[in-house]
Write a structure and sequence with these properties.
The chain is mostly helical and 128 residues long. The chain has one domain. 83% of the residues lie in helices and 0% in strands. It has six helices and no strands. The N and C termini lie close together (8 Å). The chain crosses the membrane at residues 6-28, 64-88, 108-126. This is Membrane protein. InterPro entries: DUF4267 (IPR025363). Keywords: Membrane, Transmembrane, Transmembrane helix.
Length: 128
């Protein structure tokens, strides 16, 4: 495994672990997780908790997809999946901005995540 591949795998693993953690936080501490996302829903409204639970489960599954590909050693496939998944933090940033959320979270958290995902994609797709 080249240094490029190793760094790509480490970044992919960190991203996978982070999104699993974030997903779990949406299940265990939805108010805190929503604040970290950048938009605070009214959790007193019926159904609001359900949407946050859905987000949590989907985040956990997304992280597990990456881990499964890592275990399989599918370097290039992880790169392509990371590239496709970059739409998630980009859309999250747009959602936060469109709904009056914190610009710092939209740009810093979601934009930063998208940037790290693109670097990870490049490392994995360019590795031999």
């Amino acid at each position: 495994m080249t240094i490029t591949t190793t760094v790509g795998y480490v970044l992919a693993g960190i991203l996978a672990a982070a999104i699993i953690f974030i997903g779990a936080r949406f299940l265990v501490a939805p108010r805190v997780a929503a604040a970290g996302y950048g938009v605070l829903p009214d959790l007193d409204q019926p159904g609001a908790g359900a949407y946050l639970s859905v987000k949590g489960i989907r985040d956990i599954a997304t992280g597990l997809f990456v881990i499964i590909l890592m275990i399989a050693g599918a370097t290039h496939l992880i790169g392509w999946v990371m590239l496709a998944a970059t739409i998630i933090p980009l859309a999250d940033a747009a959602i936060v901005l469109r709904h009056g959320g914190a610009k710092s979270i939209a740009r810093g958290v979601h934009g930063g995540t998208a940037a790290v995902m693109l670097v990870t994609t490049a490392l994995l797709l360019l590795s031999s």
